């Protein structure tokens, strides 16, 4: 078995890029003989899993393969075993042919004693040399420059084989369905454009144009408010934000949908019996909604006090002059009062009640509209927490 001249390897490494100087996964034993160190199976399993979930042409698969081959240190044995996990029969055939073609092009440029691939051959580089069949023999017999060339050629062959065996749909045919989120549509379109033969400088403008033209009608309406010169990131953030708000807005619309006036009158009558409200002739009026209770049993009044709150100067919290919780003795009896316990229990001053008036309207003049005002402090006023704290 021919022995490797490690002195020449050191000389060759000095002329190679830094990435190639990392050598291959080889460890030296106490007897100074290099030994084979296999590829981490977890890395290969991660690639296989990503192919099953995302597809062979996905960005995740490409990134994982680049990470595995990025150090230019893959032995021919490891390359073949890894690619058997990546490709099926047709893909493996294409990969082998592309790999050998890439290596032959490299060998054709090898001339002179200083070339990294001097005195090498296709059999050595592909692991078909009878003396270099096992990974241990390859680790001991191949030079670092040969390992680097083999790894780079294999990575380019993998890229070519991926495009051949799993050619994505043309980017001109990808449309956003009504039920597909915009970010999912962007991912599919981006993958198709990345795998196309378009120049790199044209891919960005093409992607932007396709996003505007091939999205669904709902997305087009959202994009109308985005300026034509806006970046792709701005478009994606704007549409994603509006899509996330859509379910909330739909729920609010359903909760505040118009109900029969009789329902509002019944809820107002219940509050009147509890002495929470009283008939009113106040000139003030703010909207009130009748919404279902969270428990699903009956309805409750939701008073929109935003107009009233604009007239109120916020007071802020009040200093309680009480010690911190850590200063309270262990056996000291305490009462915990929740803010919700104060709703509808603190009386409003008579001069302020008219500002909290509302109407129950009967459409088409079915009967006279009802006017009420609150007698107790209700939910929604800006200074309610402060008043609760003072009381």
From TrEMBL:
Q: Which Pfam families match?
A: Gag_p24 (PF00607), RVT_1 (PF00078)
**What is an annotated GO biological process for this record, any one?**
viral process
Q: What protein am I looking at?
A: Reverse transcriptase domain-containing protein
Specify the Reverse transcriptase domain's residue ranges. 272-391
Which species is this record about?
Zosterops borbonicus
Tell me which PROSITE patterns the record gives.
Answer: RT_POL
